[in-house]
Amino acid sequence: MTTETATIELKKKEIITPDIKIQGLKKAFGSNVVLNDFNFVLNKGENVAVLGRSGSGKSVLIKCIIGLLEPDSGTIEVLGKNVPELNEAELDRLRVKIGFLFQSNALYDSMTVRENLEFPLRRHWMDVEQKEVNNMVMEALNNVGLGYTVDMMPIELSGGMRKRVALARTLILNPDIILYDEPTTGLDPITGREIDELMVSIAEKYNTSCLIISHDMKCIRLTSERIVVLVDGKCYAQGTYEDLQRSNDKRVKQFFE
Amino acid sequence: MNDAGGLSSFAGRFFTQFYKPRYEFREFIRQCFVIGYQSLPLIGLTGFIMGLVLTIQLRPSLIDYGVESQLPSMISVAVFRELGPVIIALIFAGKIGSSIGAELGSMKVTEQIDAMEVSGTNPFKYLVVTRVMATTFMLPVLVMLADAIALYGSFLGVNIRGFTSFSLFYYQVTDILSFGDVLPAFVKTFFFGFTVGIIGCYKGYYSSKGTEGVGRSANTAVVLSSVMVFVIDLIAVQITDILSLN
What we know:
By secondary structure, chain A is of the alpha/beta class.
């Protein structure tokens, strides 16, 4: 087999095995059915946005993907592994390959920026020398343009800076997939655009697949190649921004008005 | 009743997680420092005042019965058997129970606990097991120190009116105290410490409803753990009595 053929085979395999594949996902809280027979695929290197109204189940979806919530039924394959069937140790190993940017940033208040970034590193790569850890921390911070905040406390940072530090923390373990939960919510439009541009540059630089949960249309337009519209717990429509913008369906149209 | 069920299951989870690796030694030591060492000034002051006030209050009654000379002995028995463990445990519940409840509650509502979990760290082991172990092991140490400081306060109280040499005071204190006075009181402080830790963690870990919920977690952690200190004390006294340890 030539190198070229091998590369083609590898690419085919990558296309066949998506980073995330969800089939028949159902999740209800009591009588409130949030996700109902939800199907979805995120291919390797793809940036996909999930669009939906507040309370439509977008955050529940990514929490099911990362294993923070257990689905009632359905399969969630992440990097080839069915998340609901994994035990604690297997789930921890899988989570190392997934970055998660929380809506609230979720920086540890009691730790400095350096300690926040060191925390996941120290948990998983215990044998790494301190010098190397420092280099990795600085590299991740410099990638989000905040190298100078390394010894500051999260409380001393602005909302946009906290978001960037949280993003640096998700990058420190070099994840294959990044899940963004409302990345621009609560930010002013200028800072929001800066975060959008950062997300695009990070996806290119780290070669990650991204799943973005948002209802910020500007963010979605800039960062996503494909949009999935979540309505009544189902994948109601999907396509590029332009495709959906042209749609005549009322429930899709309302997001673009 | 909801709390009873939830707490039992939470305590059960603590014991199952306690034995499993990975052991969070660094965080445990850090919590011992925060919970133990940083509580020393408050506990020391409480112990000192407890000994001093108790001595001043008891003196007139003992004078009436003509047994003023027995003041050091009575104070030492009261402090070691009952007052030291219970008062220090209540102060500990107020300081540490509320702080753990508020800290974990705030971490919960700001998704920091979820962030820990998605970074591949078991937040129960890292946050709960370490804190409960630290409260369990630090409270007995704090009570011992507070008891010693209370005796020093008592020594000053005895000498406010009259004179008793330190060697005589020390002799009277050690002469009256027996194994049965010190050991049961020491053992129950482990249970007090465990209770304060597990209730604080439980209330914080399951905090909800935003910042209002954090305040409520801290508040209910203090109230519930203070009540439980008395309940455990009652049970401990009954057991000690049945076993004729006093």
